[in-house]
Amino acid sequence: MVVRDRLLAFQERHPITPERYTKIAFAALVLLSLIVFTGAAVRLTGSGLGCPTWPKCTETSVHSSLDTHGVIEFGNRLLTFVVSAGTVAAWLGVFLVKPARPDLKYLALSLPLGVVLQAVIGGLSVLFQLAPGWVMTHYLVSMVLLIWAFDLWWRSSRSPEEVRAAGTDRTLVIGMRVLYVMAFVAIALGTISTAAGPHAGASGTGEFVGRFDWFGDDTLRLIIHVHGVVVTVLGLLTIAAWFRARTHGSQELRTTLLLTLALMAAQGVLGIVQYRLELPAELVWVHVALATLTWVGFVHGRAAAGRLPERAPAAREMVGQTA
Questions:
Q1: Of 27, 149, 183, 226, which sits most exposed with the smallest number of CB within 10 A?
Q2: Alpha carbon distance 242, 15 (integer Å)
Q3: Name one GO biological process term (predicted).
Q4: Domain locations in the chain as residue ranges
Q5: Any idea of the CA torsion for 73, 75, 79, 80, to the nearest 10 degrees?
Q6: Measured between alpha carbons, how far is 114 from 220 in angstroms, rounded to an integer?
Q7: How many angstroms separate the Cα of 154 from the Cα of each of 19, 22, 58, 115?
Q8: Cα separation of 268 and 235, whole Å?
Q9: In degrees rounded to 5, what are phi and psi of residue 97?
Q10: Rounded CA gap, 288 and 282, in Å?
Q11: Integer Cα distance of 169 and 160 in angstroms
Q12: Where are the alpha helices (DSSP H) in the chain?
């Protein structure tokens, strides 16, 4: 009771406006995106084992040696503390928002907890010598964290009533949710492609890292083919969703879909070029960065479509008669 009273008193003395909190939530989203980019850079520079153990960098030291790969890996670990500070600020700040937003508290809490989970997964991936399964999990959990971070920012910029508002078109809302799931599948297939490719993450330090070789020498080619088919279908369905949104969706959704399509087009061109150039690390990094932004686009599209509206009375009666 005393703690609660002190918290309420602190809130009265140091309130945060909804607009200011939205900026804090956006900063957390940016930081969580940034560490995905730097994490990809660690892998693509072959610095994944620049710190060969965890939680220390070496057996005897918390910090790295002065060689390039050690500095890159240790720098990425240090960035984790910055990201942690940003997510903790988003969590603590939600208690100071006035008027209060209790609907955001658990979502805000998920961010620092997710960062802790990511630190553990990252540490385990190092301890297991960058085993592909651990590295894939590390990236995919980052994508889940971006869902939570985006939702926190998006919801904080709107009133609770706006957040709960149903979409204007049931077909479009369902379609955006299907695209959202397909986009995650495409991301997962992309991580499998990387796990079968030449960028194991430790080329700079010389350690051997196992790769996926389920189909022998054809593994990478087959996975990239499947990935390409899924992404092509995803792109065509996204175009269909944009046409539907032109007459049944909001301006926010139309703009989001258009930007997402532009990112997908850039990804398609880049994917072909990097494959023909035998996957140079620089282009793969750009591909990963654009994939992350494209994923955020689909997360935004799902949110902008709104909640699933009720069926029209006539449709409900028809369903009942059919049953």
A1: 226
A2: 41
A3: heme A biosynthetic process
A4: 1-158, 165-323
A5: 40
A6: 31
A7: 12, 8, 41, 20
A8: 10
A9: -70, 135
A10: 10
A11: 20
A12: 2-13, 18-44, 68-93, 105-127, 132-156, 160-163, 170-196, 219-248, 251-276, 281-305, 313-322
Q: Are 104 and 152 in contact (CB under 8 A)?
A: yes
Structure tokens at 233: 């279908």
Residue type, 179: L
Structure tokens at 321: 């008669």
Length of the chain: 323
For 146-174, the DSSP string reads: HHHHHHHHHHHTS-HHHHTPBPS-HHHHH
pLDDT tens, the chain, 323 aa long: 565 666 667 767 778 999 999 999 999 999 999 999 998 888 787 776 767 777 777 777 766 666 677 778 788 888 999 999 999 999 999 999 998 899 999 999 999 999 999 999 998 988 888 888 888 999 999 999 999 999 999 999 999 998 888 888 999 999 999 999 999 999 999 999 888 877 765 555 555 567 777 888 788 889 999 999 999 999 999 999 999 999 999 999 999 999 999 999 999 999 899 889 988 888 989 999 999 999 999 999 999 999 988 776 544 554 455 54
Token representation of residue 306: 């709104």
Task: Supply 11's token pair.
Answer: 């809130």
Return the amino acid letter for 162.
Answer: E
